């Protein structure tokens, strides 16, 4: 999966600075696709994917873009792996910090949930900058 490259086609819906939102029609293979972690459903038949717009595509342009397997692994780790590690570390750290209280397990749990919340806020909040290296890239465009 690390060396896998998925090439898809879609139509640019909107452009935001250096990035484009591309509408991709769902097919039968979408259920088995490993890239669905980065797709956002727009309708039952369509997904929206944010891509790096290096070719300056405009809304209405038909584009081909690639999604690298290493990107999917990074996204999966950032969404699932790292929060799990932070959660478990927070539990153990919280048990040490709150050991003098009667409800130390509750406080450790709340501390851990707070750490995961801070991680998501800092990583995926509006103030975080999207990394051009991990987003899918437009390979070609066709203007209409």
How is this structure best described in words?
The protein is an alpha+beta fold. It folds into two domains: about 5-70 and about 130-140, OB fold (Dihydrolipoamide Acetyltransferase, E2P); about 80-125, no CATH class. About 35% of the residues lie in helices and about 30% in strands. The protein has two helices and six strands. The chain has helices at about 70-95, 105-125; strands spanning about 5-15, 20-25, 40, 45-50, 60-70, 135-140. The protein has a six-stranded antiparallel sheet. α1 (about 70-95) runs antiparallel to α2 (about 105-125). It starts with a strand and ends with a strand. The model has no long low-confidence stretch (mean pLDDT about 80).
Salient structural properties:
single chain; 144 residues; alpha+beta; OB fold (Dihydrolipoamide Acetyltransferase, E2P); six-stranded antiparallel beta sheet; 2 helices; 6 strands; 35% helix
């Amino acid at each position: 999966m690390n060396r896998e490259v998925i090439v898809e086609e879609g139509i640019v819906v909107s452009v935001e600075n250096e990035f484009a939102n591309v509408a991709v029609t769902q097919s039968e293979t979408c259920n088995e696709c490993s890239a669905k972690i980065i797709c956002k459903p727009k309708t039952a038949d369509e997904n929206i994917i944010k891509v790096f717009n290096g070719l300056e595509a405009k809304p209405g342009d038909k584009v081909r873009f690639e999604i690298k397997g290493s990107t999917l692994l990074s996204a999966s780790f950032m969404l699932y792996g790292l929060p799990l590690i932070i959660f478990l570390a927070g539990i153990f750290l919280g048990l040490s910090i709150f050991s003098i209280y009667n409800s130390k397990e509750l406080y450790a749990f709340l501390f851990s949930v707070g750490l995961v919340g801070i991680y998501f806020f800092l990583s995926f909040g509006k103030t975080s900058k999207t990394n051009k290296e991990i987003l899918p890239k437009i390979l070609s465009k066709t203007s209409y």
